[in-house]
Amino acid sequence: MTETLTRDSPVRILNGVGTARAARLAKLEVETVEDLLYLFPRRYEDRGNPTRLTALEPGSFSSSIATVVSIERRPTRRRNLSIVTALLSDGAGMAQGIWFNRRGLERVLPPGTKASFYGKIENKGGVIQLTNPEFEIIDDEDDAVTGNPGRIYPIYPGTEGLFQKWLRTLIKGALAVFSAELEDPLPEGLRQKLGLVPLQEALGVMHFPVDRDGWARARKRLAFDEFFLLQTALALRKRTYAAEKGGSPLAWDGPLLGRFKKEIIPFELTGSQQRVLGEITSGSKQEVPMNRLLQGDVGSGKTVVALMFLLAAVDSGFQGAIMAPTEVLAKQHFQRISEWLSGLGVPVHLLSGSLSNSQRVDVLEGISSGEPCIVVGTHALIQKTVRFANLAAVVIDEQHRFGVLQRGTLTEKGNHPHVLVMTATPIPRTLTLSVYGDLAFSTIDELPPGRVPPVTRKIPGADDSRLLSFIGEEIDGGRKTYWVCPVIEESDTLPLMPVVRRHELLSKRFGAERVGILHGQVSADERDRTMDRFSNGEISILVATTVIEVGLDVPGASVMVVEDAHRFGLSQLHQLRGRVGRGSARGYCFLIGKPGTPEGKARIEAMCSTADGFKIAETDLALRGPGELCGIRQHGVTDFRVANLAKDRSLLETARREAFALVNEDPALVRFPELRREVFRKLGLKLKLVETA
């Protein structure tokens, strides 16, 4: 390492990294020295007090130190599948290690090798077994790296070709050289007030803890940083919104909106929809741009409310845009909106990646001409070549698919447009405070009259004759079935039913002409044809991956089958269940699988016990953390590497309170340049700060 290196230097420049290892580190989202310092362990092993083999509990994940007594490989009847079995001993007990298709394992773990093994514990015929365990050969020289001989070892996220000992050595060296260079963004007075340890100390202890108390103090500091930086960004943006002028007030008494209410929609809005519409109307009549989050459970009628918002913009002589996360959903929005508005003469354009060049040119010309219109699109809407002349209303559908602080990219296409952010994934209060703390809130908490939640049942196996007979009765009655699988093709390591194989089996049972297939590797044209055939009844069963999760609306679909359901998140299962029962027929959701973990069992039980999306979201947050619930994994510091929204609620509330108080006191962060620099750098924030209080 040289003195010219900084925290922003590419990690490949570090001694021992080079181009090949840098490429492997990039798979772990490590590209700079700073990324490396923030590559925190995913777990720790206390090798001074390992779990004895005799104390291993079936159903748990445990770590033990043992010696390989014997090891052998044997083929199976299944093509291209072999099993390696190792007999392990720690002097007090015996256990088996089982691996599937691990080439060369006999050479890596010959008899006599001492290693740390970590994996799922099972009881197979009275024999304790570790299934596909991770392992690391014990090397006493590694004690010098941890600085705590024989005790606590960090275990980092892995990728092929990177070994734990090498990662420990690399990170230890980087900490020694670079941690002091990192500016502490936390104001010193605030750090002392809250009793938080300095940043450099926290980083060192997080990687190489000596005891649990020290680790807990380090974790608290780093978790607070993540919350505090995000809350500061939200406080700055909320203050900027409030100070903005120059937005375009929308008129809600125009002829198009009036005709739409009287002539087009064949139903009465629910009381909840009317209340939310009033909140949107009030917010978008102002010169200060509206920024509002619209929550509503699956099937609650958010789309019609969003369309009325866009129509108000067209009525006022402006343009409106709606951005969806997938092309399938964008095209569905386009078709539905076009049908609804066909008699009103409102131009509706679709902008997506699959358009031909000539189609794209026509759409771009229409957008740039300034004609009042509605544009529906995917991420293609935010490309540089897309220039709106008069954008005043923006709808972002399924916000959690786009990321927390990235929604501004589309709004920058207009002159302070009003923004409506929609999600059918109910968001727990903790997340609304943390991730959407800069927005006003509206919630549609009422389903349309006659809409009954689907019946949900768990089924142990996909070959259940009652399930297959029931599906046959449904499709014979003109109704449709979704069958969802977690993977596309067969895997050598995971015993999951692939969508391709399930399609074959269902085609044999019900006839190939009645069964279609849909997944991410299908071309856009074929995907459209398949969806059209499913919608119009040419096919009755659609076997798919989760590409059908969000927003699809096929009123005749009555059955949803989810295979290996325990492998899906709760909110994802709730979204899938929401695809059925959207018409006159009752919906049914069948969850197939035999969950082997308490979390998997809890997910299935929660789905069968309630249809309330908000209760499900709270349970999902508690079981698996925020994940994709709000799109926080994709973007820098908001990929909470340390903080846990389910467990750190009080810390979040403290961070929010302190951040908003600080921004209120110093709106441009003039007295806190390190904090300002870090917020803008890590979160990619683009704001013109308001310097007056």
Give an overview of the whole structure.
Helix 7 packs across helix 8 and helix 10 (271-284) runs parallel beside helix 11 (302-315). The model is unreliable at 401-406 and 627-638 (pLDDT under 50). 37% of the residues lie in helices and 18% in strands. A hairpin with a 6-residue loop joins strand 2 (61-75) and strand 3. The relative contact order is 0.10. It is α/β, with parallel strands linked by helices and 693 residues long. Among the domains are: 48-137, Nucleic acid-binding proteins (OB fold (Dihydrolipoamide Acetyltransferase, E2P), Beta Barrel); 255-444, P-loop containing nucleotide triphosphate hydrolases (Rossmann fold, 3-Layer(aba) Sandwich); 455-610, P-loop containing nucleotide triphosphate hydrolases (Rossmann fold), CATH 3.40.50.
Strand runs, count: 20
Give the amount of beta strand, in percent.
Answer: 15-25%
Question: So what's the CATH class of the domain at 255-444?
Answer: Alpha Beta
Q: Provide the helix percentage.
A: 25-40%
Unreliable stretches covering 5 or more consecutive residues: 401-406, 627-638
Q: Report how far the terminal alpha carbons are from each other.
A: 46 Å
CATH architecture of the domain at 255-444: 3-Layer(aba) Sandwich
